[in-house]
Amino acid sequence: MFDVQTESRESVNQLSAVWGEIVKDRKSGEVKDLPGICIRWADTRFAFFNTITFTDVRADTTLLGKRLDQAADYMARSKCSGLIWIFEDLLHPAARNELPRLAERVGLSPSLSGYSMVGNVLPIAQSGHPDLSFVRVTTDEQVEAYFDINARAYGMPLDDARDGMKDSTIWKAKAYSYLGLADGKPVSAAAAIESDGSLFLALVATIPEAQRKGYGEATCRKALHEASKTTGLTRSVLHATMVGAPVYERIGYHKIGPIGFYGFSGT
Fold first, then answer.
1. Among 46-55, 91-100, 126-135, where is mean pLDDT lowest?
2. Does one domain contain both 156 and 60?
3. Which of 145, 149, 237, 250 is the most exposed place for a label (fewest CB within 10 A)?
4. Span 83-124, pLDDT tens digits
5. Measured between alpha carbons, how far is residue 51 from residues 17, 61, 156, 231 in Å?
6. Could you tell me the CA-to-CA distances from 157 to 40, 141, 162, 191, 216 in Å, in that order?
7. SS3 sequence, 14-76?
8. In whole angstroms, what is the distance from residue 32 CA to residue 185 CA?
9. Rounded distance, CA 234 to CA 123, Å?
10. How far apart are CA 18 and CA 3, in angstroms?
11. In terms of DSSP bridges, do strands 198-206 and 236-241 run parallel, antiparallel, or are they unpaired?
């Protein structure tokens, strides 16, 4: 039996820790913890690195409305767009039902939806793929290819994604970041980052024309295998899109609960 609230808090804490490292590594932006609100704002055009996460447990409708007000105000004053991550299992059921209405009231609209996922999935068998070879990211050129894959997978301008890697060393210094190469060209990406006794799986992506071929899963397995072999860690945390969740379940993760990703559109 899984304790949903305990694992949801674990998932929030891992996001806060890893995204805090990413922001600090870039040497710009803001890392701040307020009552009920975790701000990890990198001031980058790569919106995934500008995040606000609510950390209250069992927040009722009134408290959720207050947090949404605070988050919308912060985003309205920011030069770059970002996302509010709402771990819905941490909300009181009544607040969860009112979330869409309360968000719309302050100019927030859904951008993505997904799941928080965890698992004692390691050590993991290194699963190859007949079409792929793998390379660990160690150069600026490879970091750029890594972010370009994410941009193409999520329909972002390449320049915005490349702004996310600006002045960052974590992807080639600390993270176990891997590219999957088909015919020598980068087509998939995944990174495992050690944090507080777990491996955080991040920025998993496959270019659109190479999707549904098992490339993403194979690259995830490679990153996790190499990270676990070095660190000895057995637990991993990730945040998945709806489309990506079945891939991670095949690896051995289980869903904790839904995440709503909200962007600011103005009131």
1. 126-135
2. no
3. 250
4. 999 999 999 999 999 999 999 999 999 999 999 999 999 998
5. 12, 22, 17, 28
6. 22, 18, 9, 21, 21
7. HHHHHHHHHHHHHCCCEEEEECCEEEEECCCCCHHHEEEEECCCCECHHHHHHHHHHHHHHHH
8. 39
9. 6
10. 22
11. parallel
Contact (Cβ atoms closer than 8 angstroms) between residue 265 and residue 122: no
Shared-domain flag, residues 144 and 230: yes
Question: Domain range spanning residue 68?
Answer: 4-115+258-264
- The answer to whether residues 180 and 88 belong to one domain is no
Q: How far apart are the first and last CA of the chain?
A: 43
* Site of tokens 């637990």: 235
Could you tell me which residues come within 8 angstroms of residue 130 by beta carbon, excluding any fewer than 6 positions away?
A: none
- The dihedral built from the CA positions of residue 143, 146, 150 and 155, taken in this order, carries a sign that is positive
Reduced to 3 states, what is the DSSP secondary structure of residue 227? helix
Q: pTM of the prediction?
A: 0.94
| Helix, strand, coil percentages for the chain (3-state, nearest 5) | 40, 30, 25
Q: Kindly indicate the confidence band of residue 4, based on its pLDDT and cuts at 50, 70 and 90.
A: low
What is d(CA 65, CA 123) in angstroms, rounded to the nearest whole number? Answer: 42
Whether 109 and 182 map to the same domain: the answer is no
105/69 Cα distance (integer angstroms): 9
Q: Is residue 59 in some structural domain? A: yes
Q: How many domains does the chain have?
A: 2
